[in-house]
Amino acid sequence: MLIDNHHRTINYLRLAVTDRCNLRCNYCMPSEGIQFAKKEQLLTTEELCRVSALMVAEGIDKIRITGGEPFVRKDLMVLLRFLAGLKDLKDISITTNATLIGPYIEELKELGVTNVNVSLDAIDRENFKRITRRDQYDLVFQNLKLLIDKGFNVRVNCIVLDGQNTEEIIPMLQLAKDYPVSVRFLEEMPFNGGSKSFNSIRWDHHKILDTISSVYPEYDKLESPATSTSVNYKIKGHKGSFGIIPSFSRTFCGSCNRLRITAKGDVITCLYGKPKANIRDLIRGDNSAEAVTKAVRQAIGKRAKTGFEAQENFDGVFENSMTSIGG
């Protein structure tokens, strides 16, 4: 079992399989993109499988596949088939922009990979195109509808961007009204590509909730797991629910159960902190199982108590792109 230096049990791994993405969302990376990793810098599929098995042996029972966009990786299904065979792994989930997932939906359902987070920051066509810098609106909504129709547990993640999509908050809730999905609104985070002033934000979780309650005053707060990053609500008459993730305010740090491993093998114990180790060379060397396990345990043993403490190593806006650290 993995337990950090603040007595928090770590049972959830966010495993990035690529730093590449086929969209260019303006809060995530610059319009010209970033310097993507070379192929030899990335963990191979075999190495991702071995790392996953080692982490499950250490008590990880939930793995979320992230990127970049995971389905940019051509051999992603090889990894997912392997994960589906790990008997102690209770939950396999994916975060995706829903542009490339379509051909794999049937097999995902067969494998039991039914928890899918769709990153979607606009329900309006022109806003979608402006934010993502790509014209993929129809394809995204086609795949989103297919996931819903096939019975996947779908959560739609919308980052609230001041001056860009705040007028989308109420229209986005139409998805939760018509379908059994959870629409979750995230506070904007200080990563490369977004706003360059992050001493405070205007659209925090209080303002988001006030905006929703001004239109939908009848809602109930739902009971959520202690490790949940979102505060969740149900509007009377809606098939689905909505949630708010205080990703800038970071009120969830006290119960954080997450570990991140990037596509290049960086071990990140806090989204807002710098890598604590790298396991790429270790998994490729002798005694790899022992070496990787030791490195991860040591990293967790030096974990920051909060995201604010972890951020002290950065100066203002993080130089990282969200696509390089798995979100």
How does this model look, in words?
The protein has 327 residues and is an alpha/beta fold. The protein has one domain: Alpha-Beta Barrel (TIM Barrel), CATH 3.20.20.70. Helix content is 30%, strand content 18%. The relative contact order is 0.16.
Give a short summary of the structure.
With 327 residues, the protein is an alpha/beta fold. It has helices at residues 45-57, 76-84, 105-111, 125-132, 137-149, 169-178, 205-215, 280-283, 288-300, 307-311, 322-325, and strands at residues 2-3, 9-10, 12-16, 62-66, 91-96, 115-119, 153-159, 182-186, 219-221, 231-235, 241-245, 258-261, 266-268, 277-278. A twelve-stranded mixed β-sheet has the order 9-10-11-8-7-6-5-4-3-12-13-14.
